[in-house]
Amino acid sequence: MKNALSLKFHGLTKRSFRWDEVLSDFLVRFFALIPIAALAFIMMKIIAKGSGAITWEFLTQAPSQGMMHGGIFPCIFGTLAITLLMILMALPLGVAAAIYLTEYAGKGLLFRVIRAAVNNLAGVPSIVFGLFGVGFFILFVGRNLDAVLKTGMLFGQPCMLWAAATLAVLVLPVIIVATEEALNTVPQSQRAASLALGATKWQTIWNIVLPQARGGILTGAILSISRGAGETAPILFTGCAYFLPRLPVVNLFGFIPMINPFDQFMELSYHIFIMATQSLDAVKTLPIQYGTTLVLISLTFLLNLTAILFRVHFRKKMGTVTV
Amino acid sequence: MEIKILNSGKTLRVNQDQDLSSNTTKILVRDLEMFYGPVRALHGIDMEIKEKAVTALIGPSGCGKSTFLRTLNRMNDTIPGARIHGTVLIDDVNIYSPEVNVAVLRRMVGMVFQKQNPFPKSIFDNIAYGPRLHGVIDKAVLEHIVEESLKKAALWNEVKDRLQTGALELSGGQQQRLCIARVLAVNPEIILMDEPASALDPLSTAKIEELIYELRKNYTIVIVTHNMQQAARVSDFTAYFYMGSLVEFGLTKDVFTNPLKKETEDYITGRFG
To answer: DSSP for B153-167?
Structure first.
């Protein structure tokens, strides 16, 4: 008995030192720090070089004197306008698709095919979306609309409408997956309670399921906006312009200013791209490039922050239902 | 009335001894079979459920009593692969005939679930949810319905000063009574209860049982329970299910004191189950 005991606790008071433990401990910590370091490096560089360019004039004026002076206001306006149009198209479509997948589709073949399509869509390179936008929206849909409606050259050319539509297809998987997750977190017992009170399926989805999922849906929407706002390739051929002398605004009925979806537009990420690659003296435009990048990143961060605040707000508001 | 369970030292209080067999039949089940895909969950059930009485469904886990309960308001429709044969007549209407409006049926046949499931809305909005669905928009009418429903569910005095607070802040027992009030608000004729007290403490359970006893005056109640004492206390009729078949069905006092089948006796006396 005594021997067995001493054997069992042999080494209890001796600290062991194992190389594999120490090494793995160090490595996982080190690798975990790399993303933080990368982000910190990028942010520091952009802030250091870009903050000097940020002035009131830079944020509110149009570029002038061969893009070397003035500001980037048309780009900020274009970015906001196109992401607004994009989300107006993508959100209803994506939410509807997710509702179909979670509430109607069952788990059969069609469900698996749509699932696979959504996942593959998320993996398509963004330049392919750009080409798809030209081929499908402008040349196919647009030209045919022009021919049918006899509108001349209205739909069949690059413009904000098609650029936004292209971006909408790009962010569709983000919205679908986020919405699906949000819908799946609503317990089945909630649906059962509503159905048992004589609610129809749609009444149950509209009154019980969607309100409880809206935090997650909004989070997905905002994340997709911040994804779409930073994309360049999809809008490259579908509607953005190097330089426009005026904002893409039309006066509805002659006096209500409205975004004109048939105009071309300037955009932040595209502005950075042309400044870096197309200008006569790329080095001279460096401060503008950094300034524009800082604005774009700040905009994206702001959107992500909004998403987080939304999530916190909705979680607090009604409490979460446990399964 | 106090009854002695045969062959065991236990006694049970049975709540009444009036004759209920003269009550009219509310639900008539004939040769009901239920399938989950290839699995047959119910075997040729025949049952007559009397109006304004409490019918308890007892039996071991997986015996089909909850499945049977859910055929009465067609909640099984929502399960993929579920099929049904036979008829369920409620007031002489076959609820499985194609022209039946399931939403109206479920409004008429309310359901209380095992785990309380209030909506993450205010107490008021929980009760008003059903009436609003069915077109009641007048605020005064809604207030009246909410008050009446909460009174019938014996919850009014506890919550009348805080109708706008979230329903999830109530205790478990209060939440379950809220769910009962929510069902009462759509004015059903039949109330199905799927082990309504199994997740509650003894005190809350007692309150729910008292409530069931009160409600039987105006509603036809079918209750699934695992608790033998509860079945004896609250029910007028008892149905014993085993392996998807209805083994025995009769007045509770008969089933508990003088069961016709050996299996029922074994289950009730605790020798099996």
So the answer is: TT-HHHHTT-TTSBG
- Option in B75, B115, B118 nearest A196 (CB): B75
Cα distance between residue B237 and residue A30, in whole Å: 70
Coil, strand or helix at B190:
strand
Task: Report which residue type is found at A309.
Answer: L
User: Hey, which residues does B246 pair with through a beta bridge?
Assistant: B241
> Helix, strand, or coil here: B95?
coil
Q: Phi/psi class of residue B59: alpha, beta or left (left: φ > 0; alpha: ψ in -120 to 50)?
A: left
With a CB cutoff of 8 Å and minimum separation 6, the contacts of B139 are none
Task: Please tell me the distance in Å from B43's CA to the nearest CA on chain A.
Answer: 25
Ordered structural domains, chain A, with CATH: 49-316 (1.10.3720.10)
Domains of chain B with CATH codes? 2-268 (3.40.50.300)
The CA distance from A304 to the nearest CA of chain B, in Å, is: 27
Mean pLDDT by 10 residues, chain A (323 residues): 57 76 92 93 91 86 77 88 92 95 87 91 90 92 87 83 93 94 94 95 95 90 87 86 80 78 87 84 82 91 83 67 45
User: How many degrees, rounded to 5, is the angle at CA A206 between CA A202 and CA A208?
Assistant: 110
Prediction ipTM score? 0.89
